[in-house]
Amino acid sequence: MEVPHQIVIGTRASTLACVQATLIQDAIHNQFPQIKTRLKTIKTQGDRILDVALNKIGDKGLFIKELEHALLAGEIDIAVHSMKDMPGEIADDFVLHSALQRDKPHDVLLFADSAVTKRAREKNSQSLADLLPAGAIIGTSSLRREAQLKRQYPEFQCQLIRGNLQTRYKKLIHPTQGAHFDAIMLAAAGVHRLGWDDYIGYNFNPVANCIPSACQGILAVQYLANRKKQLANVLDGLKHAETELFQQAERAFLQAMAGGCQLPMGAHCFYDASLKQYQLLGIVLSPDGQQAVRHQCAVSENNPAQAGFELAEMLKNKGATAIL
């Protein structure tokens, strides 16, 4: 079997991105100890522009373009991404698929007041209204999260917070003038990968009260299609069957809705034990949360992408296009 002698792994420069790239690096070493690997960090547009909401920058490839350029230039062999950052359409020059098992797909809240975190964990609170007062300020960089928060908790305020997870957490616990937050909303997977589980005060239910971004918690590997013969022998072995099913269904939905991770919509594929089958749940909202359409459908294990296309069509028929 043909495998490369060395693989240069491209990643964003944040601590979380490097942790995620290291997970892929370790998985390659475990299966192919003879392959030498090294990480190369690259700063992306999304990392540089930190004072504007992502949905206002107007680019669906905020966190990937520079990595794709490095692939095309031969500076790196593979790029590691958060799959939720990937736009629905990828150029034919590239191969993209999931790697490793999906981490926790849901969203979480980290509170500024440790006493609130302790009370929330002790009581296993089901409603944020039990934990935060009216007018509480919740920081998020996601229009999807903001819209779902506003829909369920109109008494709270949402404010933009950007930067890597360490930067956002620092802003939470060390407020500055004009930048006070009672809580920040993040992806559980990133918090978990940084070892911050003890900071989590509230877990959103990904089906009942906050549908995640498509492919949240899934790692992606990307490489040039003309190197598939060499690299597929290594990277196909990193796939996790159920995770690949999830990403195919959710990315098909994303593609059919012509969306990226910055639009107010979510998709979540999961196994429903009561129905004994996989389901795909989707939502599209107006930015203020006042309008929303939601639907779910069954997922065929033989053709998970079909469910994504069908769900998108159902939501469009219910008014999703007009909302977006």
Written account of the structure:
The chain is an alpha/beta fold and 324 residues long. The chain is built from twelve helices and 13 strands. The chain has helices at residues 15-31, 45-48, 54-57, 65-72, 114-123, 143-152, 165-173, 188-193, 228-235, 241-256, 304-317, 320-323, and strands spanning 6-11, 36-41, 78-82, 94-99, 107-111, 137-140, 157-160, 183-187, 200-203, 219-224, 265-272, 277-285, 292-299. Strands 2-1-3-10-4 form a five-stranded mixed β-sheet, with helices on both faces. A five-stranded mixed β-sheet has the order 7-6-8-5-9, sandwiched between helices. α10 runs parallel beside α11. The N and C termini lie far apart (48 Å).
Q: Which key features would you list for this structure?
A:
5-stranded mixed β-sheet; 13 strands
Low-confidence stretches: none
**C-alpha Rg, in Å?**
20 Å
What share of the residues lie within helices? Answer: 25-40%
Largest sheet: 5 strands, mixed
SSE series: EHEHHHEEEHEHEHEHEEHHEEEHH
Mean model confidence by pLDDT: 92
Summarize the structure.
This protein has 324 residues and is α/β, with parallel strands linked by helices. It has helices spanning 15-31, 45-48, 54-57, 65-72, 114-123, 143-152, 165-173, 188-193, 228-235, 241-256, 304-317, 320-323; strands at residues 6-11, 36-41, 78-82, 94-99, 107-111, 137-140, 157-160, 183-187, 200-203, 219-224, 265-272, 277-285, 292-299.
Secondary structure blueprint with pairings:
Elements: E1 6-11, H1 15-31, E2 36-41, H2 45-48, H3 54-57, H4 65-72, E3 78-82, E4 94-99, E5 107-111, H5 114-123, E6 137-140, H6 143-152, E7 157-160, H7 165-173, E8 183-187, H8 188-193, E9 200-203, E10 219-224, H9 228-235, H10 241-256, E11 265-272, E12 277-285, E13 292-299, H11 304-317, H12 320-323
Parallel strand pairs: 1-2, 1-3, 6-7, 6-8
Antiparallel strand pairs: 3-10, 4-10, 5-8, 5-9, 11-12, 12-13
Helix pairs in contact: 10-11
